[in-house]
Q: What sequence folds into this?
């Protein structure tokens, strides 16, 4: 995976989830579930949804 695809928190796993309602995709599911607000726009995270790239 390129650096652009890596989780911006752990920098180890692939960024594979999207935050609702803001829509940013910057973390892996494991890290995303630990956050209360988006690290990019600071909006409240209502839900973390796993994304599958095909």
A:
């Amino acid at each position: 995976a390129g650096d652009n695809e890596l989780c911006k928190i752990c920098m180890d796993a692939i960024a594979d989830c999207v935050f609702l309602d803001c829509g940013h995709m910057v973390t892996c599911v494991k890290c995303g579930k630990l956050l209360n607000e988006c690290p990019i726009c600071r909006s409240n995270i209502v839900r973390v949804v796993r994304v599958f790239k095909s």
